[in-house]
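Re: the request from the purification team.
They wanted to know what the chain is likely to look like in 3D before they choose a buffer screen. I agreed to run a prediction and write the result into the notebook, where they can find it.
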Amino acid sequence: MDNEVKMMPHGIECCDEEEVHADKVQLVNEQMPPEDRLYDLAELFKAFGDTTRIRILFALFEADICVCDLAATLNMTQSAISHQLRLLKQARLVSGRREGKQIIYYLADDHVRTIIEKGMEHILE
């Protein structure tokens, strides 16, 4: 038996022999979500793909907070924070409510906290 591993150009191991397992292909294809759902999921994960947005989410773990306080906490301009909050709102990860002359931002739901916590667990393994 040959112990040599077949490698693709980018260093990814692959099968020594090409054999399609039709039953597995069918099973996966039957369970695959529609393309528009996969697109939405990819867009959600893109929202987590920026350190500033992650820092904002971590700040919102601790307290509902206005843009002024977020800017001071993260040592950034209000304009920069507002831009990132807009993206987080579009991804439905944060929401805001008016309190007098301020808009107070908060995590949209517990799923946001769970996603971040699971991500941290994964990178700490």
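For the purification team: Residues 33-124 form a domain with the Arc Repressor Mutant, subunit A fold (CATH 1.10.10.10).
Please add any questions underneath this entry.
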